[in-house]
Amino acid sequence: MCSLFSVKSCKGRCFERTFGNCRCDAACVDLGNCCLDYQETCIEPEKDSIWTKRILTLYNCRLLSLQVLSVCVLTTILGCIFGLKPIKSCKGRCFERTFGNCRCDAACVDLGNCCLDYQETCIEPGHIWTCNKFRCGEKRLSRNLCSCSDDCKAQGDCCINYGSVCQGEKSWVEETCESIDEPQCPEGFDSPPTLLFSLDGFRAEYLHTWGGLLPVISKLKNCGTYTKNLRPVYPTKTFPNHYSIVTGLYPESHGVIDNKMYDPKMNASFSLKSKEKFNPEWYKGEPIWITAKYQGLKSGTLFWPGSDVTIKGIYPDIYKVYNGSIPFEERILAVLQWLQLPRDERRTRFFRSFIWTSQQ
Fold this sequence. Notes:
Blueprint (H helix, E strand, L loop, with lengths): L1 H4 L22 H4 L6 H45 L25 H4 L6 H6 L28 H4 L6 H5 L27 E6 L4 H7 L4 H9 L14 H10 L3 H4 L6 E3 L4 E3 L17 H7 L4 E4 L25 H12 L3 H7 L4 E6 L1
Parallel strand pairs: 1-5, 4-5
Antiparallel strand pairs: 2-3
């Protein structure tokens, strides 16, 4: 037992409350019963360890700074030797590891050496549908929603304001109304195409009160045919009205009397979110795309109610199943791309005289 009480050193006991004549934990300072070698054995080595870590951290930081500085110096030297000018922009360099003072690939964010215009030039075009000065003359990238490259007109994928922002042209809204005395066919068409476009829920009052905030629709009103208002069929719901437009029938005749309904004979419920809306038994009458088919014409639809249903065993020549998550800009671009298809492909594959499109 005496040997147990004769422990007077902190060696192997630092910061532990072990049995002995003296203590080596932090409380011993307040209690005044630290072993004689507590300071030398437990405290001073800990301080040395902290300082060692700080010195190593500082060394690593300086080493990294030296490496970055070396790269910058080397870049400058090579630029002088080969006559290369410092590149400080991502224009034409997005997601490429090309020679320059700053980088434009994805790794530059972690490294902290992105060019100042990296966000505007490389990232934003994947989320916006317009051109800006940063994008004009950009290198074509598949990830961009639309293009501001020099060949976008030839490719048919320019952003909507490309002409005004990048080429200094007046926008269509700013131009005077064009006077057309006789019907004209667009280039590449043998007969004028008919485009029916619907903005669901757009009240007549909007144009009267807020026309100044709707420049495109106001331009169509001022340069085209316009009526102050129309009386919808009742109920004033999306499916009944849109199906009346393409069949010429009232809801009691074409069967689609509401967006949500129950048929006791079929013992089935119809709704816009159920698979039952694809059942052709609900749709009576003859929509215009079927009439066009019977007359040897081709039609295309984009999200028009009933157009993704095999009514009388017939679909439009081209159509898409409704998907509310697709942005309106992408819907418009899809129709424009159909219109710009080569003549032969457009004749044989898609439409000739009718396009029906709706934004629900």
